[in-house]
Amino acid sequence: MSVTLLTFGCRLNAHESDAMEHLARQGQTQDGDTIIVNTCTVTAEAERQARQTIRRAHRENPTARIIVTGCASERAAEAWAALPGVSRVIPNTEKTRPSTWGLPEKAGRTPPPSRYIRALLQVQQGCDNDCTFCVIPAGRGQSTSMSPKEIIPKARALTEAGHCEIVLTGVDIASWQQEDMGLGQLCRHLLNEVPEIARLRLSSIDPMILTPDTGDKALWDLIADEPRFMPHLHLSLQAGSDLILKRMKRRHSTTDVAGLIAQVRRLRPDTGFGADVIAGFPTETDALFQETHDFLEEQAIPFLHVFPYSERPGTPAARMPAMPKAIRQERAARLRALGQTMRDHFLHRFIGQEKTVLMESPTTGHTPEFAAFTLQQAQPSHRGRLERIRITGLKDGMLMAEIP
């Protein structure tokens, strides 16, 4: 059986598709082609693209079995099952079981290698938050945490496979809790138990885990004194207006976020901050949008992930007074332009410095702060190597560098 994976959405979906592809390679026993579509429901556009892809796949290979899984199909299984060529819809909780898509359970006994130089390690699933714009809990269920007994062997296997940098990922990793341990304690435990991990990084986190007064103390300690913990934090911010945050039913305030950014910068001044931001949320007046714009500018967050608001049927936000789509797009463009300015200002500070970086190709990669760079020399490095480079300039949002 030939198995093709088509993936939409987040890093977690990509990570799960990696595992599914590994399982498929180990257990190809049936005749015919199988196409597995791993869907995303974060935006309407992601769902539209997945439906379009399924229709195209059926037209191009009408005899193939099409299996649909992921968060979008979790919410509307019957609608996805009715698409042409779809033979089965699989729940998220079962998609990494080979038997659900026609392979023997013995497939996939060895841990899957990551296709990426920077290895993803899933530690958590689902979400208990109740944000008014989000349907992820419907697609992923309630928050569950993998135990350290599961996580440590997987991390060790990744380092043995040659990965020197590991990224902890999940739907809401800030909610990770097991055996009286929080996320910061898990990170410390992981670094102690697997000393071969040269670099540990977090995927997107809820800002509440790092509020200066009530946040995860163990995580603050890592930021302060652990060189293997990368100086890069991507915040699930969503807005820079307290009223919009309240209507989103987010748990943090702009004061919380400003406080944590200031404290992190006191401890590690060059930390690279990223943030998810929604533009054009329902009821967002010009004045409220300006609050978000000004807050982002004041905090000088260099790596913005901006997207216009997308209605998700059945959510409270979908019943709120909507902004015209043209306004959402225009506001998103303004925030992206602001982000480029702040990014370039942030990157300028590194010119003349030397950094130990992870090579993701012979000539490109990211610094510990997650700033992209490219080597400007005839003799390249090697993919997967930790290399010492000197930053020489900045061009089109990317650092120019050389090996000293």
What would you say about this model in short?
This protein is α/β, with parallel strands linked by helices and 404 residues long. It has helices spanning 11-26, 44-60, 71-75, 77-81, 136-140, 148-160, 183-193, 217-225, 242-248, 254-267, 286-299, 325-348; strands spanning 2-7, 33-39, 65-70, 86-89, 118-122, 124-125, 144-145, 165-169, 199-202, 232-238, 272-279, 303-308, 354-359, 364-366, 372-375, 386-395, 398-402. The chain is built from twelve helices and 17 strands.
Explain what this protein looks like in three dimensions.
By secondary structure, this protein is α/β, with parallel strands linked by helices. It has 3 domains: 3-106, Methylthiotransferase, N-terminal domain (Rossmann fold), CATH 3.40.50.12160; 112-349, pyruvate-formate lyase- activating enzyme, CATH 3.80.30.20; 353-402, no CATH class. The protein contains 12 helices and 17 strands. Strands 13-14-15-17-16 form a 5-stranded mixed barrel. A hairpin with a 4-residue loop joins β13 (354-359) and β14 (364-366). α6 (148-160) crosses α7 (183-193) and α7 packs across α8 (217-225). The N and C termini lie far apart (49 Å). The model is unreliable at 107-113 (pLDDT under 50).
Percent of residues in β-strands: 15-25%
How many structural domains in the coordinates? 3
How many helical stretches?
12
Overall mean confidence score, pLDDT: 89
Order of helices and strands: EHEHEHHEEEHEHEHEHEHHEHEHEEEEE
Taking the alpha carbons of the first and last residues, their distance comes to 49 Å
* pLDDT < 50 runs, ≥5 residues: 107-113
Predict the CATH topology of the largest domain: pyruvate-formate lyase- activating enzyme
Major beta-sheet overview: 5 strands, mixed, barrel
In helices, the fraction of residues equals: 25-40%
